Amino acid sequence: MALSTFFTEPFYSLADFDRLFDEAFNARTSAVAPRQQGENSASRPMRPRMDVHEDQEKNLVTATFELPGLSKENVQIDVRDNVLTVSGESTISSERDEKGYSVRERRYGKFSRSLPVPQGIKPEEIKASMENGVLTVTFPRTTPEQAPKRITIS
Q1: How crowded is residue 11: how many other Cβ atoms within 10 Å of its Cβ?
Q2: Are 37 and 71 contacting, i.e. CB atoms less than 8 angstroms apart?
Q3: What is the mean pLDDT of residues 1-20?
């Protein structure tokens, strides 16, 4: 029995469900043929995992991105039209031998993830740090101008 069959037949992983959804939506929007089972998953686009947490008390949004193997030099953060975009590229080592793989789940290539930011957020209010392949981006939930104001009745 091939090693790749052992890893893919008995159980389905979250990556398999991601692939199924990608194929379903791509089939409706493009003329590209669906992927064959057993096709190299490393050839699929890289899509880093993201967590977004809102802290109402601190008026802060924290977005955390998993970017294993990447350094901050390989990652860009842009804000345009109230959309924060994290993008970059993960490359395969030039010393890598392509023969002999039974399973290849690691992905390489360009990636981009976007999320909306509140109206009126200034770029200098957005903070980012990266440690051990985890990018953390924080920004205010609302601006003082957006906060509800109480009107007194005369």
Answers
A1: 7
A2: no
A3: 52
List of residues 6+ apart from 38 with CB closer than 8 A: 4, 8
| Token digits of residue 103 | 């399973």
Distances (CA, A) of 133 to 48, 57, 67, 71: 11, 28, 5, 7
The rounded mean pLDDT for the chain is 75
Percentage of the chain with pLDDT > 70? Answer: 57
Runs of H (alpha helix) within the chain: 3-8, 14-29
Whole-prediction pTM: 0.61
Rounded Cα gap, residues 112 and 72, in angstroms = 15
Residue type at 25 in one-letter notation: F
Burial class (CB in 10 A: 0-12, 13-18, 19+), 142: middle
- List of residues 6+ apart from 56 with CB closer than 8 A: 141
DSSP string covering 27-41? HHH--PPPPPTT--G
pLDDT, tens digit (0-9, with 9 covering 90-100), for 122-145:
888 999 999 998 999 999 987 766
The vertex-85 CA angle with 83 and 88, nearest 5°, equals: 170
Spell out the SS3 assignment of 86-122: EEEEECCCCCCCCCCCCCCCCCCEEEEEEEECCCCCC
| R_g over Cα of the chain | 21
